[in-house]
Amino acid sequence: MKYISTRGQVSPTGFIDAILMGLADDGGLLVPKHIPQLSDDTLKQWQKLTYPELALEVFSLYVNNEIPRADLKKLVDDSYATFRHEDVTPVRRLDNGRYVLELFHGPTFAFKDVALQFLGNLYSYVSRKTNSIIHILGATSGDTGASAIEGVRGKEGIRICILHPHQKVSKVQELQMTTVNDANVLNLAVEGTFDDCQRIIKELFADVSFKHRYHLRAINSINIARILAQTVYYFYAYFQVANKEHADKISFSVPTGNFGDIFAGYLAQRMGLPIHKLILATNENNILARFVNEGVYQPGAFRGTYSPSMDIQVASNFERYLFYLYGEDADTVTSLMAQFKAEGRIVITGDVLKRVQADFSAYSVENEECLNTISAYYEKYSYLLDPHTACGAAASDKLAAEGEVTVVLSTAHPAKFDEAIRLRNISQTYPEQIQALFDKPQIQTVVGGSNEEIKKQLVTFFN
After folding, report:
1. Residue 102 covered by a domain
2. Global pTM?
3. Which residue range forms the structural domain that includes residue 285?
4. Does 74 fall in a domain?
5. What residue stretches are annotated with the Tryptophan synthase beta chain-like PALP domain (predicted)?
6. Mean pLDDT across the stretch 160-167?
C-alpha cells in the first residue's frame, strides 16, 4: 500500500514514511492510494473476531508487509491490553434500535486512546528499528493531548509537545495533561482557541526545513494512522449490533469537530462495510453541519460550549473528504484549499452538494439541547452521557427514522465533563484514576499564540 497527498505533489510513499511525515510535505493530507475492497466473505469471517484480532486484519491491509505480521500483532495486543473492558470498545444497548458505542475504556477515558495507544507504540517501534529521533508535536481541544501523552510518556527516543487552548478545556482534561511529570513531555497552554493551536501546528509542519531539522512527527488526526485505527471500531460495532438485531440497516451518529472520527466511518463504508447512514453531529460551532446542509464551508464566530472538544471552526480532516468528493482530483483540491485560504470560504452547489448529502446527514446541537439530552437519557435509561456523546444522541433522535437501528459514538467518559453535568443537578462518582489527578501538581507553560513563540519553546525542548 502506498500513500499519496490530497494535493498531488508528493511521491507515493510507504506506510512507515507516511506516518512519520504526518502532514504531507506539499501541505496536503496523506490518503491510501487505493482503498482496499472487502468481499462479503471477508466481512462474514471478520464478524467472529475479537477487537485486537479485527484491528490486526484492518492494519494488515494498510501496512503492506512493512511491519512483519508477528510484530504488528504485538503492537496491536500491547495497545489494547491497556483498556479496562475486555471488548475494548463495547456496544451498549439502551432500547430497541438504540445503541451506544463506548469508546472511553482506555487509559485517559476518551476515544482518542483507541488510536493513540497504537500510534504511541508504533512510533516507539519505528524509533527502535530505525534508530531515529521522534519529536511529536500536536494540538488538542482536550482529549487528544492526554491520550497522546499517555501513549508515549517515558518512552526512550520520543519527546512530545502538546498545545492546548489556555482555560478552554475541561478541568479533568487539563489535569490529565499537565500533571504528567515525565521529562519527555512539554505542555504549552496557548492564549487563544483550539483553531489557533491547530493553525500553528499545520504551519509549523508546512515549514518543511523546520520540520525536518527538528524531526517533527504528527500525533493529530492529520496522521493517517489515527484514521486507520478508528475505522476498526466501526467494523466491530457493526458486527456486534448486526448479531443482536439481525438488521441490514445500521447507522452511526458521530459527534465530531475535526471530521476525523466520522471520516473513519466514511472510510470503513468505502471499504465495503454496509453502513446505512452517517449522521454528523456538531455543537454550536457548526461549520461542518452547515457544509452538509447548505454547501457552505465557512468559519463562524467561535462559541464556547459544554462540549469543548468540538469547539472547532476549521476541521483538519475536511480536505481528505474533499479529495474523494471530487473523484480524487488533487488539482481541484489544491485550488479549493487555496481559495479557502484566500477567501475564507468554500461553496458547493448542484450535484456535488447532492453527493455530500448522500454521504452524510447533519445536525447542529445547541447548548441547552445538549444538556437536555443528558437529562433525558439519564431519566429514561439511567445512562449518563458526556456532553459530546449527548450531541450525537440528540442528532440521532432528530435525524434517525422511526425503527432505524442507530449507534451513537460515545467519545468520552462523563467524569471528564462534570462541570456541564452538574448544571442538570446530576451527581457522579469519579473513577479512582481521575479523582487522583486533583491532588497532583500541574506543569505547564502559558504562551502567546504566535508561531515564533512556539518555535522558541520547541527549539529549547527538542535540542
Report:
1. yes
2. 0.94
3. 91-109+225-424
4. no
5. 85-405
6. 95
